[in-house]
Amino acid sequence: MIQKTKNRISNILNETSEDDASARVFNVCIITLILLNVFVAIMETVEGFSSRYQILFKMFETFSIIIFTLEYFLRLWTCTADGRFKSAVGGRVRYAVTPFALVDLMAILPFYLPMILPCDLRIIRALRLFRLLRILKMGRYSESLRTLENVLKEKKEELLIALFTVLILLVVASSLIYFVENTVQPESFSSIPATMWWGVATLTTVGYGDIYPITPLGKFFGAIVAILGVGIIAIPAGILTSGFTREIQRKHGKRDLCPHCGKDISEPPERSQNTE
Fold first, then answer.
1. DSSP label of 266
2. What number of CA atoms fall less than 13 Å from residue 9's CA on the CB side?
């Protein structure tokens, strides 16, 4: 009976079946509660709202903490229904350190820490910022966020290479501009790390205009960096677009066929086996 109840709760929490009405209702309620929590956390920074609705905000916070705490411990109790966490103790420990479980814990921890540890009031106020982590809990309830997670996992190597390329270009561009502009603008371009602020603003084509080169050579280098930034910053967007396209095709059962040979190239090639 207990095992059957545990399995049922696990199915609702993890939505193992798309036809489960209880799981869908639970997901909608949790997502709504998360969004309301983020909204309240934002509105509490507005002085007029904070003073006027302080009691209401505290009541809603307490209600949310009760729901999120109950959800966390139910997930911790039912995680053994998953084959990956079968062990009563070791399985729960392994589950507790998974990314989503850590997000769940961080979402409720700031509420309980001041009750346990004697903290400075400023530290307590800072811990309240962790309430915004509740929006990360939506990842387990939203199919779109799960798709994004799959794309990021699949394209992580390409994204890291693109990031590394941008960092190299940032260092080179900032170094060149520093050596060109430092003698005429020692305050604005005081060091290479300080010049990197100009490099970031130029590579991303934001161009705040707080610091900028004034020498002819510096302007020339600045123009080159701005043009390169248009292409370099667009690379991650292209990588993510390719990843989303492949992920959507995979979910809809469509194959990515080679236009020349007609073979399926959406999956990695099979290793050739040596035959005698």
1. S
2. 18
Q: Kindly give the confidence (pLDDT) of every residue in the chain, 276 residues in length, as a single tens digit, with 9 standing for 90 and above.
A: 778 888 888 888 876 556 778 888 888 888 888 888 888 877 887 878 878 888 998 899 899 889 989 989 998 898 888 888 888 888 889 988 887 788 788 878 878 877 776 655 455 445 555 555 556 666 566 666 678 778 888 888 888 888 888 889 999 999 999 999 999 999 989 899 989 999 999 988 887 888 899 999 999 999 999 888 888 878 888 888 888 888 888 777 655 555 556 565 555 555 444 444
Domains defined for the chain, CATH in brackets: 2-141 (1.20.120.350), 156-251 (1.10.287.70)
Q: Who contacts 244 (Cβ-Cβ below 8 Å, separation ≥6)?
A: 147, 151
Strand positions, DSSP E, 185-239: none
Q: How many whole angstroms separate alpha carbon 50 and alpha carbon 146?
A: 34
DSSP 272: P
203-220 as b/e, with b when 16 or more CB fall inside 10 Å? Answer: beeeeeeebbbeeeebee
- C-alpha–C-alpha distance, residues 148 and 150, integer Å: 5
